[in-house]
Amino acid sequence: MRRAVDDLHSGIDKISGKLTSDINFDSFAQDVQHSAFAASQRYQQERDDGLDGIHNKIDSCTDCLPIDTIQVHKDSSWEVVYATKDKSCNEYSRESNDNRQTYDAYKFKQQYINRNIPCIIRGLDQSHFKDISTQWRTDAHENDDSNCNTKVNTDWFSKYVGNDTLVPVRIDNSNIDGDGGGLDEDGRAEECQTKYMKLSEWISQCHEQQSCVGYLKDWHLVQFLSNNTTERPTPTLPLYTLPKFFERDLLNNFLQRYSDGGDYKFCYWGPKDSRTRLHSDVLHSFSWSYNVIGKKKWVFHLPSSYNDNNSNDCTKQTFEVIQQTGEAIFVPSIWKHEVINLIETISINHNWITTANIDKTWQCLICEIQAIEIEVKAWGMSDDDFEVRENMLRGCIGLDVTMFILMIMTEMVYLLKLLFDSVEEDNDRLWDCLYSLFRLEEVLIEVIRLPNLDKRLEAMLNSEKYASEVIKFANDLITFIAKLKDAST
Q1: Looking at 332-475, which runs of residues are DSSP E strands?
Q2: Phi then psi dihedrals of residue 95, to 5 deg
């Protein structure tokens, strides 16, 4: 983590002169500034409006899907191809060509990510995931209508992963239809037993459809391939590229740079009827899932509200989505869902955090901090042992307070560099940059108010000097963003 502080120090040094001066926007950019600030203030309303829209579509149209299906083109523009339009609709209808409009990545963020509502995404198998789709399928197609009966090219995995390589297969012997839906009393997903088996054994069991064969999930395949030190051949990397919709990934960018290559990037491989039980995603993150091969049924459970910040509170309203080969799904923060593989399926899944859900991740950390305090007091542990508290927090959810504040601040410095370089160049980018800075600053203010933050930082950085420096940088960033806000009102 000290390296993150050093990089933060270097980044702030480069922009320190500009942090003490005002940014002079031209008249048009001033309108963008005001718009971004106004949007940052109504983010909760945007979420509520998005959720209300889904509720209304379910109430008014029982036979149609309440979420959009979009088509992405090779230039990264996109259009809605299926949508529920209004309360009078009685079928899941295709948009006519005359009504379609194409949009950019910024519009996707505003329409789905900022409003925290799911959507189905088509066309990525012809662009960002084309190589991996071609290599992993035994019968890949060059058009959008990929055959769901396409089988897994097991030769690829044998060659590049190795038949003797151990892979993490999750075995779930519990009653998945019983009470609780696979959640413990605190609403967390119950752990499955993990069995490490040779890849060749997994392939054999998966294809033979043996009972309790399990589910190869949370597999860090890309990380494994990137770290290959054997004589085994390595495929051309990266296996896929990120769509622009998902590029600003604070979580994975930070972890890969400052935590020995850790990440939340996974491969899932399951036979027919394997499943992930009812859960919401770790850290209140967003997630996306791309079906390289196969067919999944998703069951989404709608939150009843976002206002109480209770991720365990969901309504009885549910809807199902069938995800085909070559399709991706965007999964919002705190939405509970369960997933069933209808045929043998391999998917790429990322959990990710961005400025649109950073407040939800902070709420997740606060809940875990409170739970840990109850535990350490019950054990009679010292009130001053913040290294233990941070380690417990990271062990529970994969992130501690020190990592979280550094993740926010390194992103803010990146955005400020972008802001200073693009004030008069690209108004969409300027809007997105300002919106993100305003959202991050609000959460950063909450973080620096956390009791004993200095002690947590000192414990993890092993330096009082580094801890003080982080807090000073945080206050400097907050002061500058406050000036931007004042200029936006």
Answers
A1: 336-341, 345-352
A2: -65, 140
Q: Angle, nearest 10°, between helix axes 27-41 and 43-60?
A: 60
Q: Where are the beta strands (DSSP E) in 136-273?
A: 166-171, 193-198, 215-219, 265-270
Q: Is 165 a member of any domain?
A: yes
Whether 158 and 215 share a structural domain: yes
- CA atoms 93, 94, 100, 102: torsion sign: positive
Closest listed residue to residue 477, CA positions, set 420, 418, 434, 413: 413
Beta partners for residue 303, in sequence order: 314
Is the Cα torsion angle 69, 44, 105, 257 positive or negative in sign?
negative
CA atoms within 13 A on the CB side of 482: 9
* Closest of 258, 438, 257 to residue 355, by C-alpha: 438
For the chain, the distance separating the N- and C-terminal CA atoms, rounded to the nearest angstrom, is 37
Say if CB 267 and CB 219 are below 8 A apart.
yes
Determine which helix (DSSP H) or strand (DSSP E) holds 299, and give its type and residue range: strand 296-303
Whether 139 is covered by a domain: the verdict is: yes
Q: What is the CATH number of the domain that holds 302?
A: 2.60.120.10
CA dihedral 414, 416, 417, 419 (to 10 degrees): 120
Q: Do 302 and 51 form a contact (C-beta atoms < 8 A)?
A: yes
Residue 91 lies in a domain: no
Query: How would you write the pLDDT of the chain (489 residues) with one tens digit per residue?
Result: 788 988 888 888 888 887 777 777 776 678 888 999 999 999 999 999 999 999 999 888 777 899 999 999 988 899 999 876 544 433 344 555 556 688 899 999 999 999 999 999 999 999 999 999 999 998 644 444 444 557 899 999 999 999 999 999 998 765 444 333 444 444 344 556 899 999 999 999 887 765 557 999 999 999 999 988 888 999 999 999 999 999 889 999 999 999 876 899 999 999 999 999 999 999 999 999 999 999 999 999 999 877 655 555 666 789 999 999 999 999 999 999 999 999 999 999 999 999 999 999 999 999 999 999 999 888 888 888 999 999 999 999 999 999 999 999 999 999 999 888 765 567 888 899 999 999 999 999 999 999 999 999 999 999 999 999 999 999 999 999 998 888 777
Owning domain of residue 280: 130-239+249-352
Q: In what helix (H) or strand (E) does residue 436 lie, and over which residues does it extend?
A: helix 427-448
Specify the pTM: 0.89
Q: CA nearest 180: which of 192, 188, 172, 169? A: 188
**Residue 215 near residue 169, CB atoms below 8 Å:** yes
Domain's final residue, options 291, 317, 352: 352
Of 352, 370, 399, the last residue of a domain is: 352
The Cα 160–Cα 432 span in angstroms is 40
CA distance 280 to 278: 7
**What is the spatial distance between Cα 131 and Cα 92, in angstroms, rounded to a whole number?**
32
